[in-house]
Design goal:
By secondary structure, this protein is of the alpha/beta class. It has one domain: Vaccinia Virus protein VP39 (Rossmann fold, 3-Layer(aba) Sandwich), CATH 3.40.50. The protein contains 7 helices and 7 strands, in the order H-H-H-E-H-E-H-E-E-H-E-H-E-E. A 7-stranded mixed beta sheet has the order 3-2-1-4-5-7-6, covered by helices on one side. Strand 6 and strand 7 form a beta hairpin. The protein is globular. The N and C termini lie far apart (47 Å). 37% of the residues are buried. It binds S-adenosylmethionine (SAM). The site of S-adenosylmethionine has 20 residues, from strand 2.
Amino acid sequence: MTDKRAIARRLAKEAIAAGRPLEWFEKLYLMAKAEGATIPWADRVPNPNLLALYERIKHIPFGPKALKVGCGLGDDAEWLSGLGFYITAFDIAPTAIAECHARFPASKVNYLAADLFAAPPEWKKAFDIVIESYTLQVLPPGLRTKAMQAIAGLVAPGGHLLLVTRARDESDPPGDMPWPLTRSEADMFCSYGLEEIYFEDYRDNESPPVRRFRACYRHS
Ligand SMILES: C[S@@+](CC[C@H](N)C(=O)[O-])C[C@H]1O[C@@H](n2cnc3c(N)ncnc32)[C@H](O)[C@@H]1O
C-alpha cells in the first residue's frame, strides 16, 4: 500500500532543511494540480472531527463573524457558511484558494491567500469564532507557539476558538509530519488570553483510530 503522506513528508522535510518551513504547502497544491500528487488532508468533505466538536458545543451562543485558519480546499468553510456564519477563510497557498473559488463559485465565503504569521492588522481580535483544525500539526514544533499566539490574537473579546488536532503524550516521540500536539502545548492557548471551556482527548473513527484533542476556548 502506498503512503499517502510520502510526498507531503518529503516536501516538508526539504522545506524545513532549507530553513523555509512554510514553503511546501503551495508546492504540494501545485504538484497536486499538475501531476495529481496526493494532498493527504484533502478529503473534499467537511472534517467529521470538527463537525462532532460543533455538535458538542453548539449550545454556546457564538457570534456570527467567523475565521477559518488554513482552509485548504474550503470544505469546512462552506459548511460553516451553511450554518449561517459570515466567514473569512484563508490559506498560505494561493493555489488552494484558487481551488476554493473554482470549486465553490457561488460561495458566500470570503476566501483569501494570507499567512497566519503576517495576518492583516484589521483581523486582530476581530472574529467571534476562529476555527483551527489540522494546521498546527503540520507546522514544525518550533513554529507552533508563535502560531498559537497568532491564532489567539484573532479572537474577539468574548469570542471563541475551536481546535481540532492530533494528540500525543508528553513522553511520546514527536513523530513524523503531521506532528501531534501534547496537552501542555494545547494549554498554551490559556497563556494567550483564552480560557478552556471544553476539552476532549479521544480516538477518532479512522482505521486505525487516531488520537486527537478537540477543544473550545473563550476569550476571557
Ligand atoms: C493540514 S492542512 C488542513 C487544511 C484544512 N483545515 C483541512 O482540514 O482540510 C493545513 C493547511 O494550512 C495551511 N497553512 C499552513 N501554514 C499556514 C500559514 N502560516 N498561514 C495560513 N495557512 C497555512 C496549508 O497550506 C494547508 O492548507
